[in-house]
Amino acid sequence: MTIHGLLLAAGAGTRMGQPKALVRDDHGSWLVRGVRALREGGCDEVTVVLGAAADEAAPLLDGQDVSVVVAADWADGMSASLRAGLAGLECSSAAAAVVTLVDLPDVTGAVVARIVAGGVESAALRRASYDGRPGHPVLLGRDHWAGIVAEASGDRGARDYLAARDVDLVECGDLATGRDVDTRPGSR
């Protein structure tokens, strides 16, 4: 049973003032950091979904041994990125995908590993929680991919699909905050 990491990095980052796939801070590229977290957490393969500034972001992934999917309809919100990413995994042998977002710079491989540690079954639904608040990464068993793609809309991704199902929450507040960052590093 293999597990595939899926890093969503397609948005324009309007509040950030630039696409988040291009953001760097004192610890380097958020894009590369997200890939590293998925790899270190146990993902056998990683796919990155790009959209806004895809031509500028793709070279940042050189040497990272990842697949890149470009969500042509990225401006429609996170659901477009998620649909494009899951569609890109259909031909894979993965039993599950671990989905995370590029704008979670403090989510590390330890968080991903904790999510994966519950097992990789095609029926699994598991997500990180931070002090009881559900967040990312989210482990989506393959049995759920078609339903998620069918229901995902706007900027809600799989939120509605997950809300209607029994999802195992895995507390990770001792490892990270899980907060998405919407302003440039160093700005107020």
Query: Helix and strand succession?
Result: EEEHEHEHEHEEHHE
Query: What is the SS-derived class?
Result: alpha/beta
Q: What would CATH call the homologous superfamily?
A: Spore Coat Polysaccharide Biosynthesis Protein SpsA, Chain A
Main β-sheet, spatial strand arrangement = 5-4-1-6-8-7-9
Distance between the termini: 44 Å
Mean pLDDT: 91
Poorly predicted runs of 5 or more residues: none
Number of helices: 6
Write up this protein.
The chain is α/β, with parallel strands linked by helices and 188 residues long. The protein has one domain (2-171): Alpha-Beta Complex (Spore Coat Polysaccharide Biosynthesis Protein SpsA, Chain A), CATH 3.90.550. The chain has six helices and nine strands; from the N terminus they run βββαβαβαβαββααβ. A hairpin with a 2-residue loop joins β7 and β8 (133-141). The chain is globular and about 35 Å long. The termini are far apart.
Helices and strands in order:
Elements: E1 2-9, E2 24-25, E3 28-29, H1 30-40, E4 45-50, H2 54-57, E5 67-70, H3 78-89, E6 94-101, H4 109-116, E7 125-130, E8 133-141, H5 145-151, H6 159-163, E9 168-171
Parallel strand pairs: 1-4, 1-6, 4-5, 7-9
Antiparallel strand pairs: 2-3, 6-8, 7-8
